[in-house]
Design brief:
The protein is built from 3 helices and 2 strands, in the order H-H-E-E-H. By secondary structure, it is mainly alpha-helical. The protein is elongated, with a radius of gyration of 18 Å. The mean pLDDT is 85. It comes from Faecalibacterium duncaniae (strain DSM 17677 / JCM 31915 / A2-165). This is Conjugal transfer protein.
Length: 73
């Protein structure tokens, strides 16, 4: 066995990258913003969780700005 049951069920779920490195059941991706390695929750993920919030907030702001300017004209 690679590791004991306690480690596998208690410690590994807290560190997804370590879990992926040990078991290789999930692919690792690189963040498009910071270049860090992360375990994607879906096949469409482009950003690590830290960068995702900032990127989505910026995209939403730009979308709202565009929508509001279209209403005025």
């Amino acid at each position: 066995s690679v590791c004991c049951k306690w480690f596998r069920w208690s410690v590994l779920p807290l560190d997804g990258t370590l879990e992926a490195e040990i078991f290789r059941d999930r692919d690792l991706k690189r963040c498009a913003v910071c270049g860090g390695v992360f375990v994607p929750k879906s096949n469409r993920a482009k950003y690590c969780p830290g960068c995702a919030a900032r990127v989505h907030r910026r995209q939403k702001t730009e979308s709202e700005r565009k929508r509001r300017s279209a209403v005025d004209s």
